[in-house]
Amino acid sequence: AAAAAAATAASPAALLGGDQLGCLEIGREVNALALSPDSRRVVVGLQDHTLQIWDLEAQVAVHVLRGHKYWVNDVSWSMDGIHVASGSADKSIKVWNAVEGRCEHTLQGHLLSVATVAYSEDALRLASGSWDKTVCIWDVELGKALMALSGHTDWVHAVAWAPGGRQLASASSDHSVRVWNAISGVVELVLVGHLQTVSSVSFARNGIYLASGSLDRTVRIWNLQEGSLAARLQQDTDEGSVHTVAFAPDSDRLTVGCGDRCVKVWNIRTGDQEGQLYGHEEAVFGVCVTPDASRIISCSHDTTVRIWRMPTQRRQGFAAPSAAAAAAAAANGLQTPTAGGAGRWSAATSFKELHDRLRWTEDINLQLRKQLEQAQSEIEESNWRMRKHNTSLGEQERELNNYREMISSLTAEKEKLERSFDEMRQELRQAPMAAAGCAAGSTLAGRQQPGGSPAEPVAASQPQPSPQPPPRVHRPAGSPATSAAHFEDHRAAFPAVHAHSHSYAGHGYAGPRGARQHSPGGPAVRDGYGGPGVPGRMRRA
To answer: How far from 92 is each of 65, 185, 289, 301, 478, CA to CA, in Å?
Structure first.
């Protein structure tokens, strides 16, 4: 503590009239803070998803408000001192009763993280800005959105109400500040000039000036009546990115929270830096000024909230510029801070601004060249993939042609085989007829005459005479000789019939009358003669 006190005493803050009055150890990284209208309490939004309400005099936590599911990015206290609004990375807005420490409404509608919230002076409306590039105006009592304002092309980081509640300003990563008509929702002004993300905006109490802070290390003061730049304040250090700005009630002084762990106080009319307040160990992300302009409250990711006495000394004034310097500044689009129409400027400041602008231009050119190289690399890779794809398509086309040729060849061979098969089928149909004719001819040629000589071939067209039985010899009836002789005559006349009768195995054949012939296993068969003197008939068993 002694070392910290010594460092504070030796710091530029002490030399420039800034004194630290108190420090609240929050214990969590603080993203934002808001002061109650009576300046007795402060609410902070933390990265542990909670809000804490502290009593500044007693330096104790009064309430811990839980309900968000992710970081609390911003907080705002209503002018009636009863309600606190919070915007979170969980895409929701919650309205809390700061006296009882409970949530009254949860407003849903944004598609991405809610980065900023701000109450209007009448405490009836609430404005919010989101990473979904929109600004919404809500009816707090009804808990519903009145209008959604679209126009920004990148994340919205800050919103601020003008005195009277007729206008609303918004700051975005698209490097612009937009001033909206809060009644009609029409954009009235688009203020451009910043080179990087615009992180914060604040209206002066007189409603004429609007301050905007940017990561390009500048603060710009805009004259809303003329729609022009009134002043430009440049940080001296490379870590001087501006995270938050807040006007003092007198509309002449502006407090700035920077990435170099410092809180600075500027006089916008004279261009003087009236104080540099050192003590935070990390970047300052929130500042506010008490209504009596006696104290400054700041917060940081170093888990602390610090209370400062407002600096009163005014040093580092600017001398009046020469005509040549003023002409050079006007030619380069640089505007000077004004006080009652009298400008205060220096040639050194003009050249420094030119140098800074040149350096930023070179940085932007370097980034553009890197982006161009990356785009060219992506285009080359895309062309290579396209060529590879075309090569693959060519190979597939060739394979498809080969398959087509193979199919054509197989089809032709199939047709050839079908023709061969038809020819073979016709030949097979003709073959039995030829074989039958040959068999008939060989049968006629091989037939023997009764005397043993081959029979003469007879034309197929001539009818073959049927064999005639030999003349019968009359024998006395009933004699065995007569029956036997008759049988022998019959067998000599019809040898094929008798041979056929012998082919029936197991059946036997008929002998002379009264005789019974047996074949192995066959039944007995009587002779086939009908009676004495009557030729018998062969019969099967």
So the answer is: 15, 22, 27, 22, 140
Beta-strand (E) ranges in 248-404? Answer: 253-258, 262-267, 273-278, 284-289, 295-300, 304-309, 338-339, 342-343
Q: What is the pLDDT of residue 70?
A: 94
361, amino acid identity: T
SS3 421: helix
User: One-letter amino acid identity for 47?
Assistant: Q
Torsion on CA atoms 478, 481, 484, 485, rounded to nearest 10: -110
Single-letter amino acid code for the residue at 505: A
H-run or E-run covering 107: strand 102-108
Q: Among residues 80, 82, 78, 47, which one has the least CA distance to residue 63? A: 82
Structure tokens at 226: 């003329």
* Identity of the residue numbered 431: A
- Closest by CA to 474, choosing from 406, 393, 534, 403, is 534
Q: pTM surpassing 0.70?
A: no
- At CA 304, angle to CA 303 and CA 305, rounded to 5? 140
Q: What is the pLDDT of residues 180-218, one digit of tens each?
A: 999 999 999 999 999 999 999 999 998 899 999 999 999
CB-based contact 179:135 (threshold 8 Å): no
* Model confidence pLDDT, tens digit, residues 146-187: 999 999 999 999 999 999 999 999 999 999 999 999 999 999
513's tokens: 């009358």
3-state secondary structure of 245: strand
Rounded to whole angstroms, how far apart are CA atoms 316 and 296? 21
Q: How many residues comprise the chain?
A: 541
User: What whole-number distance in Å separates Cα of residue 419 and Cα of residue 300?
Assistant: 96
Quote the CA–CA distance of 361 and 525 in Å, as a whole number: 137
Q: How confident is the model at residue 138 (pLDDT cuts 50, 70, 90)?
A: very high
Type of residue numbered 378: E
DSSP lists the bridge partners of residue 267 as 253
Instruction: Spell out the residues 6+ positions from residue 187 whose beta carbon is closer than 8 angstroms to its own.
Output: 149, 151, 178, 179, 180, 181
